[in-house]
Amino acid sequence: MLRDPDTARPPGTSSSSQARGAGKRAPGLPQAADCSGLDWANNSGRLLTGDRALAAVSSDMVISESLAYLPTRENCCILDERFGSYCPTTCGIADFFNKYRLTTDNELLEIERILQQVTNATGKADYLIQHIKTLYPPDKQQQQQSVEGLTQKSKKIIEEIIRYENTILSHESTIQQLTDAHITNTNKITLLKQKIAQLESSCQEPCRDTAEIQETTGRDCQDIANKGARRSGLYFIKPQNAKQSFLVYCEIDSYGNGWTVLQRRLDGSEDFRRNWVQYKEGFGHLSPDDTTEFWLGNEKIHLITTQSTLPYTLRIDLEDWSGKKSTADYAVFKVGTEQDKYRLTYAYFIGGEAGDAFDGFDFGDDPSDKSYTFHNGMRFSTYDSDNDNFEGNCAEQDGSGWWMNRCHAGHLNGKYYIDGVYTSRDSDPAGYDNGIIWATWRDRWYSMKKTAMKIIPFNRLSIDGQQHSGSIKQVGDA
User: Fold this and answer.
1) For the residues 201-219, what does the mean pLDDT come to?
2) How far apart are CA 60 and CA 28, in angstroms?
3) 3-class secondary structure, 204
4) Three-state SS across 125-167?
5) Which of 16, 43, 59, 451 is 20 to 30 Å from the Cα of 223, by its Cα?
6) Distant-in-sequence, close-in-space partners of 154: CB < 8 Å, separation ≥ 6
């Protein structure tokens, strides 16, 4: 059904205007004609035409909910494909507006929702900040920091205490040992104090134990025996070239033979690892009953053996750990001067069951063993004065002083080994045969229990009637 153009027209509009209007009318908006013949009734009901009507429409469009762009005389009739092929009409603007309105409204609602969430979150944050400020005022924060500092200090103190506890525990055994040692030392000190008190009491009494020294003197022990002495003991002698007399032990028998003792080994109580000066001057102790170990001294031995043209005989006394005894005698025994390093010389081996170890021994180690171990003509050596024929130091290796070659077959100043038998492991670190040995009687890994070196004038040797079975040369032999 066709409408009446007049009834469909707003007041003040013409039918020609309606015919030219092609677009749909938006709700609440009047239909517009083209720009040149536009009539419009404003809010006051006054009819506007032409440019005024266009301005009124533009004004109402600005006031509406949304506006695509502001129309003016310059851009009113510019073609825009979004509005069709002609100038925008009211219906075209409404269509454009409705096309984007829903999306725009949704975006605005989302923005409003987000803004509301931000506002709510900001309010909560403000509330929390105020609450925190209430709970932790500035003075309370300082107190909290102070508490944290004290906590750290406490932790450090606890760690230090634990470290000290561990140290104490680790040294607990040491502390216990020191405590035990302290108790032991305290007991020893108490005993020593008691002994000191006893000694002080004894020292207040007159001395009763004295070393009895015989009155008779001479150039040697045979000279003393020739003067009538028949008792073994301590005597002073003064050899021909000696500047002063010195004490010796004289072994005098019932036949009037006087042996001057040069060396004694009995029990290992004396250390024979001595230096050159000590071997020169002598060391150990001389006792009236001949129960102590000693070395008379190289200088004294030299003075005795070289004081006259009458030669001396050297006797070696040996005793093993089974109690068996043996001897070895050497004629024309002498010891040279210190300048000659107290060189040992003798004329020949007289005899004795012990055999002639001074002549060397073939141990089977080397074809030259015998020539490497003889002692006649050898100089005396100590660990601090090496005068042997070895590239090393025999005295240092064996821990003693002796007439060393490369090194020895007879060695009476060696290390004292209980029970006699020893091994190279026992003689550590050198690993050499360093015992009191006499290889022609017992092997080099057997150390004697007792030894003695003593001299007597050569012409007195056979007076006791002793014969040496198997001896090389007897007294009086040509």
Assistant:
1) 77
2) 11
3) coil
4) HHHHHHHHHHHCCHHHHHHHHHHHHHHHHHHHHHHHHHHHHHH
5) 451
6) none
Say if residue 123 is exposed, middle or buried (CB neighbours under 10 Å; 0-12, 13-18, 19+). Answer: exposed
Q: Which residues contact 196 (CB under 8 A, 6 or more apart)?
A: none
pLDDT value at residue 205: 72
- Asked if 226 and 258 count as a contact pair (C-beta separation under 8 A), the reply is yes
Q: State the chain's maximal CA–CA distance in angstroms.
A: 193
Distances (CA, A) of 233 to 198, 200, 261, 300: 31, 31, 11, 18
Helix (H, G, I), strand (E, B) or coil at 36: coil
Residue 231 has pLDDT above 80, yes or no: yes
The answer to whether 336 touches 342, Cβ cutoff 8 Å, is yes
Neighbour count for residue 341 (Cβ, 10 Å) = 17
24 in Cβ contact with 32 (< 8 Å)? no
Decide: 214 and 231 in contact? Cβ < 8 Å: yes
Q: Pick the more confident residue, 47 or 253.
A: 253
- Residue 29, pLDDT > 50, answer no
Q: Structure tokens of 162?
A: 């634990």
Q: What is the pLDDT of residue 150?
A: 79
Nearest Cα neighbor of 224 from 333, 232, 303 is: 232
Burial label, 442 (beta-carbon count in 10 A; 0-12, 13-18, 19+): buried
* Mean of pLDDT values over 155-182: 84
Joined together, the tokens standing for residue 243 give 């500047």
Q: Which residues of 360-384 are buried (b: 16+ CB within 10 A; e: fewer)?
A: bbeeeeeeebeebbbbbebbbbbbe
Q: Is 197 within 8 Å of 226 (Cβ atoms)?
A: no
- DSSP notation for 252-288: E-TT--EEEEEEEESSS-S-----HHHHHH-EE---T
Q: Which of 439, 378, 383, 424 is nearest to 404 (CA)?
A: 378
* DSSP helix/strand/coil, 381: strand
Residue 241: phi, psi to the nearest 5? -100, 10
Run of H or E including 122: helix 90-135
For residue 368, how far is the Cα from the chain centroid? 48
Residues ≥6 apart with Cβ < 8 Å to 82? 96
Beta-bridged to residue 315, according to DSSP, are 329, 454
Residues in CB range of 442: below 8 A, 6 or more apart: 320, 420, 448
Task: Evaluate if residue 178 carries a pLDDT over 70.
Answer: yes
Cis peptide before 288 (omega within 30 of 0): no
pLDDT at 140 over 80: no
Q: How many residues does the chain have?
A: 478
Question: Which two structure tokens, joined as six digits, stand for 52?
Answer: 């005024």
Encode 60-98: b = buried (16+ Cβ within 10 Å), e = exposed. bbeeeeeebeebeeeebeeeeeebeeebbbbbbbbbbbe
Mean pLDDT calculated for residue range 109-120: 87
pLDDT tens digits along 285-299: 999 999 999 999 999
> Mean pLDDT highest for which of 18-22, 184-188, 441-445?
441-445
